[in-house]
């Protein structure tokens, strides 16, 4: 049991025979081709140009695999030993596409670059451990193919993704990021920052007790976060609107709502009432400024309108809290 946990069942790469090295290369190329095709399928609907990149990369891996199989048949016959990455100690691993979803453009492009670099290093080391001239030549050629002056991923991207196509797909990815994370997060931050002003400051001025005020703020923040999170999940499954996973949107909204409320509740952990209240005022100002900045930066709302909306809403809710607290 312990030996399996510490990897004793794996063979060191240095112990592999030439046949086993070829078998490992064949299975690795097969896995990479399958991963690239999964990337292509996952991107095809929203990013067809990038999908074409990964289709061609998968075809390239198929060519490498075919060349390796032909060499194995020539040297060792038809039976290829079953050896995979997980059987070799210290060998690089691959994450299947379902572990790295959603397939964002930047994520899969970076993953493709990493895969090529790892494959290049493998073929360099494999070539060092072979004595047959034909095998060494093929492994060296494959190393060069994986690591040319520009990577295959970059070269194919340039082939399929011109300036307009790349800008179009990057724009679509940016829009998806805004719909899935920024918009729900902004809604949560606004709700948490503004809606909790009234109960927190009403409790503060009604009781003059910082601990009781903190408890009210904590309850209001967590309650609002849970409510907003579930509301976001239930309001839209994202299929028709294209806003993305409801779970991701719900978690984002809930966390930002809670954070917005806790920002001006936490200062009331300070025992001195006016010190805590002054710090809470400063935190509220920072929160409202952050909301206005996000609206301007991501939602393209003019500074004047964003500031007016946030300041007016915050001032009205704050005034309501003070009036109720002093009643």
Can you characterise this structure?
The chain has 327 residues and is mostly helical. The protein has helices at residues 2-5, 18-43, 48-76, 105-128, 133-146, 152-160, 163-195, 197-207, 210-235, 246-263, 273-298, 303-325; strands at 11-12, 88-89. The protein has 2 domains: 2-161, Ferritin, core subunit, four-helix bundle (Ferritin, Up-down Bundle), CATH 1.20.1260; 167-325, no CATH class. Helix content is 74%, strand content 1%. Strands 1-2 form a two-stranded parallel sheet. The termini are far apart. 34% of the residues are buried. Mean pLDDT is 78; it is low at 1-7.
Describe the secondary structure blueprint for this structure.
Elements: H1 2-5, E1 11-12, H2 18-43, H3 48-76, E2 88-89, H4 105-128, H5 133-146, H6 152-160, H7 163-195, H8 197-207, H9 210-235, H10 246-263, H11 273-298, H12 303-325
Parallel strand pairs: 1-2
Tally of strands: 2
Helix content percent band: over 70%
Characterize the biggest β-sheet.
2 strands, parallel
Arrangement of strands in the largest sheet: 1-2
Q: Radius of gyration over alpha carbons?
A: 29 Å
Q: How do the SSEs run, as a string of H and E?
A: HEHHEHHHHHHHHH
**Whole-number mean pLDDT:** 78
Strand residue percentage: under 5%
CATH architectural name of the largest domain: Up-down Bundle
**CATH fold name of the largest domain:** Ferritin
Oligomer: single chain
How many distinct folded domains? 2
Please state the structural category: mainly alpha
Fourth-tier CATH superfamily name of the largest domain: Ferritin, core subunit, four-helix bundle
Shape: elongated
Low-pLDDT runs of 5+ residues are: 1-7
Please tally the helical runs, counting DSSP H or I stretches of 4 or more residues: 12
């Amino acid at each position: 049991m312990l030996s399996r946990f510490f990897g004793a069942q794996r063979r060191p790469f240095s112990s592999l025979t030439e046949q086993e090295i070829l078998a490992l290369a064949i299975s690795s190329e097969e896995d990479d081709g399958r991963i690239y095709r999964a990337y292509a399928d996952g991107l095809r609907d929203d990013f067809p140009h990038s999908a074409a990149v990964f289709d061609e990369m998968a075809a390239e891996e198929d060519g490498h695999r075919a060349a390796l199989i032909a060499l194995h048949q020539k040297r060792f016959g038809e039976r290829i030993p079953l050896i995979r990455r997980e059987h070799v100690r210290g060998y690089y691993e691959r994450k299947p596409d379902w572990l790295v979803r959603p397939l964002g453009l930047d994520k899969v492009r970076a993953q493709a670059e990493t895969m090529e670099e790892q494959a290049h290093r493998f073929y360099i080391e494999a070539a060092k451990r072979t004595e047959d001239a034909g095998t060494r030549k093929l492994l060296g050629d494959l190393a060069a193919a994986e690591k040319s002056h520009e990577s295959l991923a970059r070269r194919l991207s340039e082939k399929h993704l011109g300036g307009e196509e790349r800008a179009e797909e990057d724009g679509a990815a940016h829009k998806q990021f805004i719909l899935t994370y920024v918009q729900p997060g902004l809604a949560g931050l606004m709700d948490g920052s503004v809606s909790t002003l009234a109960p927190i400051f009403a409790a503060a001025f009604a009781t003059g007790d910082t601990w009781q005020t903190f408890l009210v703020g904590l309850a209001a923040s967590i309650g609002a976060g849970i409510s907003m999170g579930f509301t976001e999940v239930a309001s839209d499954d994202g299929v028709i609107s294209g806003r993305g996973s409801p779970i991701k949107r719900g978690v984002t909204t809930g966390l930002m709502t809670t954070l917005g409320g806790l920002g001006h509740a936490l200062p009331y952990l300070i025992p001195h009432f006016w010190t805590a209240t002054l710090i809470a005022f400063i935190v509220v100002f920072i929160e409202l400024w952050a909301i206005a900045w996000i609206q301007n930066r991501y939602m393209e709302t003019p500074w004047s309108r964003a500031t007016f909306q946030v300041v007016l809403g915050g001032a009205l809710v704050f005034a309501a809290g003070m009036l109720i607290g002093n009643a």
